[in-house]
Specification:
It comes from Ditylum brightwellii. This is Globin. This protein is mainly alpha-helical and 177 residues long. The protein has ten helices and no strands.
Length: 177
C-alpha cells in the first residue's frame, strides 16, 4: 500500500486529512510553547494515561497497554510529543533517530475501535489541560493531529512486515521501547 493510500485510509476513518493533521506541528507560537513546554506535555500525557489506566468500562482497551507501566507510557508519550511539537529531541535521546510510530505499535492489537477509544481519552485530556482551556485553536489542531495519527497507525499496521516492527508486545532490553 502506498503512503497516499494509507493517508486516504486514515482520512476515511478520522475525517482529517494528512495536511490538516500537520497544522498542529506548524503553529506559531509552537504547540510546544502554547502547552507549557515539557511540563505541559507531561501533564497532557499524565491526564491521558490516567484515563486509560482508569478505564474500567473497556478492559480490552486497557489490555493493549499491559506491557508497560503507567509511568513508562507517560514518559514515552511525553518525550514523543515534546519532540513532535517543537521542543528538544527527548524521544530521539531515549529511542534513537527514528520515531517509527507505526512500527512501535504494530504488535499491539489495535483496530479502529481501539483508535477511536484512544482518541476519546486524548480529546478529554486536551479539554482538561489547564494551558489549553482558552486556546481553542490549539485544542482543535491537536485533536485533528491525534485523530489522524491514531487511524493512520491502524491503517499502516495492517501492512507491516515483520522486519519493520519495533517494540510492541515484546519488552526490549531495559524496557526502552
Amino acid at each position: 500500500m502506498s503512503k497516499i493510500e494509507l493517508q486516504s485510509a486514515a482520512y476515511k476513518k478520522s475525517g482529517v486529512s494528512y495536511e490538516e493533521s500537520l497544522k498542529a506541528t506548524m503553529m506559531s507560537p509552537s504547540m510546544y510553547e502554547r502547552i507549557g513546554k515539557e511540563d505541559g506535555f507531561e501533564q497532557l500525557s499524565r491526564l491521558f494515561y490516567n484515563r486509560v489506566f482508569d478505564d474500567k468500562e473497556a478492559q480490552w482497551f486497557l489490555n493493549i497497554f499491559s506491557s508497560s507501566t503507567k509511568q513508562e507510557a507517560i514518559d514515552n508519550q511525553y518525550r514523543f510529543l515534546v519532540q513532535t511539537f517543537g521542543g528538544p529531541d527527548l524521544y530521539k535521546q531515549k529511542k534513537g533517530k527514528y520515531t517509527r510510530l507505526v512500527g512501535r505499535h504494530a504488535n499491539y492489537n489495535i483496530g479502529t475501535k481501539a483508535a477511536t477509544r484512544w482518541v476519546q481519552h486524548m480529546d478529554d485530556a486536551i479539554e482538561e489541560h489547564e494551558a489549553l482551556r482558552d486556546d481553542d485553536e490549539a485544542k482543535v489542531l491537536l485533536k485533528k493531529y491525534f485523530a489522524y495519527t491514531a487511524h493512520y497507525i491502524v491503517a499502516a499496521s495492517e501492512f507491516m512486515r515483520p522486519d519493520q516492527l519495533s517494540g510492541g508486545t515484546k519488552i526490549d532490553p531495559g524496557r526502552v521501547w
